[in-house]
Amino acid sequence: MNTRRWDKRFLSTTRGRIVDLLRRRQSTVDELAQTLGLTDNAVRAHLATLERDGLVERKGVRRGPSKPAYAYDLTGETEQLFSRAYAPILDALLAELLERDGPEAVDALLQIVGKRLAQPAATDGNIEARLAQGAQVLNDLGGLAEPEVNGATLCIRGYSCPLASVSARYPSICLAAASLLSEVVGIPLHEQCERGESPHCYFAGVRPPEVSATKSS
Q: How far is CA 169 from CA 19, 23, 105, 108, 173, in A?
């Protein structure tokens, strides 16, 4: 989805206008209602939906003329939805590293980065459970991935790419993801990603001979 188009469409709605106001400063229900020309109850209904979706949260209490009122603010995740800085900065960083250190050094660095990213990830359970955890790690980064078990072949198939804008120019960025997933799953996973108009992540590995498939009960 085009992020700018999504921003415009969302920000043109009442909830989007509330989010836009909260990007500027924390506000109470009464302050939002006055600015938007809505009733307090209408604003509360929109805030309840935004809270449920994890976009807005209560941040402290303000003294009012009659009784204290909650102040609302955006969650950290909401601000990240609007940021477009990550991809161009990463793109420029990779370009500089490649020019200065060469592709082999950059590939090695990206694999180290992947291992570092894997450190907080849980790696419990059998290999099928860890494969599912690996797919969830990609989803947490903004992808859409599912685990697949095809006999001795273990795969994580993505239906999108969270780094599409960068991987098109620098395919080696996928090495970081492969290194990350290999750490989580516990076996080497190699990237076989599709690159083009609709990039898709794909990481595959072979089940070790000593690890038997989970038997259904």
A: 34, 33, 17, 18, 9
Taking alpha carbons only, the member of 18, 60, 22 closest to residue 40 is 18
Residues 130 and 49 in one domain: no
Q: Does residue 143 sit in the same domain as residue 105?
A: yes
Query: CA separation (Å) from 141 to 162, 170, 213?
Result: 7, 18, 28
Rounded CA separation 99/201 (Å): 26
Mean pLDDT by 10 residues, the chain (217 residues): 62 92 94 96 96 92 79 86 82 94 95 89 80 92 92 93 86 93 94 85 89 45
Question: How many Cβ atoms are within 10 Å of 100's Cβ, its own excluded?
Answer: 9
Closest-CA residue to 20 (of 29, 28, 11): 11
With contact defined as beta carbons under 8 Å apart, do 69 and 62 qualify?
yes
The radius of gyration of the chain from alpha carbons, rounded to an integer in Å, stands at: 22
Q: Is residue 214 part of a domain?
A: no
List the structure tokens of 15: 């909830």
Structural domains in the chain (count): 2
- E strand or H helix at 33, and its extent? helix 29-36
